[in-house]
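Hi R.,

Here are the chain sequences for the assembly we discussed:
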Amino acid sequence: MAWTDERVEMLKKLWADGLSASQIAKQLGGVTRNAVIGKVHRLGLSGRATPSRPVRRPTPTPRPRPTAQPAKPRVTAETAPATREPVKAPEPEPLPNGEFATVLTLKDSMCKWPIGDPATGDFRFCGRKSDPGNAYCDAHAKMAYQPQQKRRRKTSDAAAVLDSLAATRRLNF
DNA sequence: CCCTGATTCGC
DNA sequence: GCGAATCAGG
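And here is the predicted structure of the full complex:
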């Protein structure tokens, strides 16, 4: 899509109206917000009433191009290793409020601990809140990443299923 | 993770 | 001139 006079005019108007680049891009169609921003800069009408924050950037920040770049690993020592304290595994406690998450309702921030047998069709997930970056809720994360040293002599059927699945998971991953 | 604008630079 | 990739933030 080319920047016809009409489209440029529209861009100017929308930009003056305070619409964001992505909104303008959506309205114009055929262009991305990057294209809009690029055009805005080229037209010299950048920085209107700086929305939000001045967003200053003193450091030009060298941007390595994929072309002819060996792609060096940028690992900083700042990356916190995160404390890895071995914590005692609590009880499984798979039921949050009676409801389980299905594959359809499972969100990113939900515990993905499998519950039930996929073969029987009643396969669900724990679904409790999981911390960002964690696939499981606290309780299940501890079970998944730490072999349970002790197990009750008589485990319930539900616990047995969980244990079985946990063991399978450990073997496969 | 959604969003914002800013910048660089291969095309 | 164009805009994807990437950045620094909110």
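The mean pLDDT of chain A is 69. The beta strands of chain A are 114-115, 124-125.

Let me know if anything looks off.

Best,
T.
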